Amino acid sequence: MRRVVITGAGSINALGDGVPAFAEGLRAARCGIGMLTLFDCDGYRTSCAAQVRELSPPAWLPRSLARRASRSDLFALIAAREALVGAGLWSATAAASDARLDDVGVALGATTGGMHSAEEYLRRSVINLRQRRHASALTLPVSSSADVLASVFGCRGPRLAVSTACSSGANALGIAADWIRAGRAEVVVSGGTDSLCRMTFSGFNALQALDRVPCRPFDRDRAGLSLGEGAAMFVLETPEHARARGATILAEFLGYGISADAHHITQPRADGAGALLAMQRALQDSGVAAEDIDYVNAHGTATLLNDVLETRALKALFKARAFDIPVSSTKSMVGHCLAAAGAIEALACVLALQGGFVPATARLEHPDPECDLDYVPKVTRSQTLRTVLSNSYGFGGNNTSIVLRHNSPES
User: What is the pLDDT of residues 180-224, one digit of tens each?
Assistant: First the structure.
């Protein structure tokens, strides 16, 4: 079976625009969760969210697309361009029409599509019925960001929009790896994108799943999650293909595992059986043992049930060694970015592998006695890592775990 490596990465989230800004924020254990200003949140449980503060269509986008692109589209395009430039497949000075990537595939996780744009169109129409408004139906579907990305960069390989709630970005990476392993594509641009919108905020508010203050994963005083937004994108290919074109390998995608709780539309199984099964299948697909894992990027939403069940699942997987493995939730810094969460957290793992550090669980002040593993409270830790595991669990019981390895000289 062909191996899969990562040669490019791009990011935008509440910690900043670009991979260097994200890396700096992770190292500093900076919390990007603050006051939500994207829309009026009066009447909701909280006004906190991990919002991308400054966003405008980049100058390299065609004017027609810049006018109609949704917030999710822009996140995906900005992160994808950074990944393609880093991988050496795109020039940093190129306009959108300057090159074509005929053999490159696209696998992208998404959930809300252009919902924020649709909400704004409706709001403005209601406020002023006489004023003409424009909204493109093409930017509204979940599939729109994958379509726009492929169009802008001329990606004519296989294309797929993946929507499995909060595991969408992680599943997109796994599907991209499967395409490369099967020889269906030599290069795939993959990741996840999602934007904040009123529908999502209202839904989580109705579930009483939002904390009134920035989220506190694994803390005894946690009271829910903090929503976030952004994107992370990767360039995946075989190591042979990467070497042939002189690309730098950032990390290796070893494998992934998926499972279904088959339990409830929003509530996960309390025993963590589905989460455990996804991790076991990820290790099996990767060809590594539980003893090989040096760090776990937890799903870690800061909801009362999730943090306990994930702790139980980790104990069942690693047994006595579970207490010796650092585990952290980077959602404590960038919020829960829904479809983008799995991809953003995969990037956090790549940066940890490259930089020799374990990201902290920011704001973890008082550990929950039921969450008694090493959750790396408050401060980033220096540590050499070789193989890491990242978990993403979504509504409907969509569980995904991925395994990444540090790039070694023999890779």
Answer: 999 999 999 999 999 999 999 999 999 999 999 999 999 999 999
Q: In the chain, which segments carry CATH 3.40.47.10?
A: 4-244, 256-406
Closest CA to 9 of 74, 57, 80, 69: 80
What sign has the CA pseudo-torsion 121, 125, 130, 131? Answer: negative
Place of tokens 């296989």: 158
Q: Which residues are designated catalytic?
A: 166, 299, 336
DSSP state of 362: T
- The dihedral of CA 255, 111, 137, 230: what is its sign? negative
The residues that bridge with 233 in the sheet, in sequence order, are 10, 191
**CATH fourth-level superfamily of 4-244:** Thiolase/Chalcone synthase (3.40.47.10)
> How remote is the C-alpha of 322 from its chain's centroid?
24
Q: Which residues are CB-contacts of 112 (< 8 A; sequence separation ≥ 6)?
A: 72, 142, 194, 195, 197, 199, 200, 338, 339
Length of the chain: 411
Cα-only R_g, the chain:
20
The model's pTM: 0.94
pLDDT in tens, 220-252: 999 999 999 999 999 999 999 999 999 999 999
Return the axis-axis angle of helices 115-127 and 198-206, rounded to nearest 10°.
100
Strand duo 398-406 + 387-394: pairing: antiparallel
CATH architecture of 256-406: 3-Layer(aba) Sandwich (3.40)
Nearest Cα to Cα of residue 393 among 289, 219, 272, 254: 272
